[in-house]
């Protein structure tokens, strides 16, 4: 990953920019990085706060190279394998252990350090591609967040007391993500699923999972399914009743 890197001082969204490049035929591994995003996108239609100069905002174009029978399994593990790669990169570059909240939030002490947004598209000649967007809070402090995000967010600097070279972090990030995606493509999800599960703090907890269309499902998270979904059991409606079990896709 990163044979071609497009650097921007300011874009609306690196995901939007990478998506346009991919539609125009940009190759697997092309990366878009920005110092600042004016319309950073988060999951579930949220926005991603993206001030200049202190964080990492990047998007990677990925195409699958595998038999079509394995494609949907690969696709459903893509966000989780990426999250694992990002966690391993942060640990390697900043000596900071991060937890994962299913499907792909990076947390430290329950506060959000980073997030990942995967989007699918296809070129005019119908070749499918994925854009993986990564946002990481790196060198900011509490004051750099708007008031409403402060309590729930953190940065590498806040957690370690050190400033991190963002170029070094980016190169480590691309290396670890590439490693995890290669593993996923070549060997399937075996090691990835184990390492992901070890870091995942969602399991065993009471969760409220937001679904598309503003709906939500609440219950206890029990397992990561073989296809990367989260298995959630809701409390039975009546005493002695069976729990309702639901698999939620990322
Ligand atoms: C989340 O909601 O947790 C996912 C956030 C993903 C943010 C990153 S920043 C780089 C890339 N460009 C975007 O517009 N979003 C992603």
UniProtKB/TrEMBL annotation:
Key words, A-Z: Biotin, Ligase
UniProt GO cellular component terms: cytoplasm
Recorded GO MF terms: biotin--[biotin carboxyl-carrier protein] ligase activity
Domain BPL/LPL catalytic: residue ranges: 1-185
Cell inner membrane in keyword set: no
This enzyme's EC code(s): 6.3.4.15
SUPFAM superfamilies linked to this entry: Class II aaRS and biotin synthetases
Reaction equations catalysed: biotin + L-lysyl-[protein] + ATP = N(6)-biotinyl-L-lysyl-[protein] + AMP + diphosphate + H(+)
The keyword Ligase is annotated on this UniProt entry: yes
Name the UniProt record assigns to this protein: biotin--[biotin carboxyl-carrier protein] ligase
Annotated source species: Nitrospira japonica
